[in-house]
User: What shape does this take?
Amino acid sequence: MWAGLIAFAISAVVVAGVGVAINRPPDISPDAQRLLGELALIPALAARPDPPDYDRSAFGAAWTDATDAGGSGNGCDTRNDILDRDLRDKTFVAVDSCARAVATGEFRSPYSGAWITFRRGQGTGAKVQIDHIVPLSFAWDMGARLWNPAVRQRFANDPANLVAVDGDANQDKSDKQPSQWMPANKGFHCQYAAQFVVVMRTYGLYLDAPSVPVLQSALRRC
Assistant: This one.
């Protein structure tokens, strides 16, 4: 799963045509160089602002299928789309929000590295969660409050910014930026940083300066 996601992130940079040539030691891969170049183009603020007006509802109804994000409009809500993408050994069932929803499956949570068994039913939402790699409230603080509602709704349902994770790790992360939180599973740091950078660049968001060296360190391992 992770290899496919990082390929998606890197291809998004290439297609955008905004990669820059930068001087890096020869042991840094071309993909890492490209992503480090993208990171260098993200404007950085000295610190994360703290506007008082964040409201989750500004990003639209949670997991709505009615957006212009990739994969939307397929008859399944976003949560079920990501479960279908990220889980393996799946069985399916029809539910109100999706005619072919994952009923059972398993996955290795990228944040903790733990294998998680998914079985639809009471308590599943707490055990298996869909995380915004770039948190919604962080995006709000770093520029999303100036977007129109349609763009915010797209952002909240963009598969490039979403990943299935174990609930405990997601709650530990909350809305923290990379300077305050990175996955306990260090093997996922490269992928996490790659997706974080691509999403920030794609949506024109600002970054907090303390997160820059954290992301640089992670990308150099790619």
User: Anything to note?
Assistant: Residues 2-8, 10-24 have pLDDT under 50 and may be disordered. The two ends are 16 Å apart (CA to CA).
